[in-house]
Design a protein that fits this description.
Number of helices: 2
Number of strands: 18
Largest sheet: 16 strands, antiparallel, barrel
Helix content: under 10%
Distance between the termini: 26 Å
Order of helices and strands: HEEEEEEEHEEEEEEEEEEE
Strand order of the largest sheet: 2-4-5-6-7-8-9-10-11-12-13-14-15-16-17-18
CATH topology: Porin
Radius of gyration: 20 Å
Length: about 325
Amino acid sequence: MKKTLLATVIVTSLISATAGAATVYDKDGTTLKVGGRVEVRGLFSDSVEGTMEDKSRARINFAGETQISENLTGFGFMEYEITANAKDKADKDDGYYLKNRYLFVGLGTQIGNFSYGKQDTANVQVSDFSDIASEHSGQQQYIDSASDKQSNTFLYSGTFADALTVQTDYLAQDEKDADSFAISAVYSFDFGLDLGASYSDAEQANQATLGAAYTLNSLYVAATYAGGDVDASTEFTSLEVAAQYKVTKELRLIAIVGMAEEEVSGVTADTEDFFAFEAQYRFNKSIRTYASYKLDNLEGKEDELLVGLRYNF
């Protein structure tokens, strides 16, 4: 556990961590790793007034771990993102917007990891089952207490018998009666099947999520279903199905189907209805290119094509 604590925290809590992170310091039981990505992306759609919308971004993260005693470690993680052409003019600086994505510190013990800060909630380990595309996936986070990158989050994560991972969190808010909590569990069978469930609850909002994923050689398939209340008058249900096939070591094909509806005061309306297909080519572990096309079936929505080139470091 001591040797794998930092990797466990990053892999189970962060979708943004990269395998290419470099160890820049390793001495006397303390390590520091630096990683991130540079990603240029262009969005083509009839909803764009000009030829293409610049969706480029860059991320840098720092992960540290220190051995306190034989059974106790400390860890910390932070990540920042620079986004091109921010829509909030007040936050723009030369056309780019800097924001904090993650910032948390914790302790690793023999019974699990305890952390506090801006981090993912317990639901994310289940919703991530179907969040596998570069852009058009990951819709199963409808309320704050079920979402990633939430401030003031107290999180516990523990793995038992190398198969069951349990997470629970508490979000302390600065607004009255806004605190929330969540709990989730994922069980991984040794034949490639993962099953997960989570429940998130706030004052007038709640979300239950169920997930299943199966890996067989080069094929990965997953489905997540979510339902609950956005507020006192709005209910929702959502389904996301994802599949990935590794054609070769370099080429991956990904398909996503997303459907969701909301019922507001007895009136039901579709909020998601799309199919997306992505072709991804990984030259090596550091650089990849991809093209993702989303066919949106909702009235008034436009199809879109996102093309990108990404470098991990």
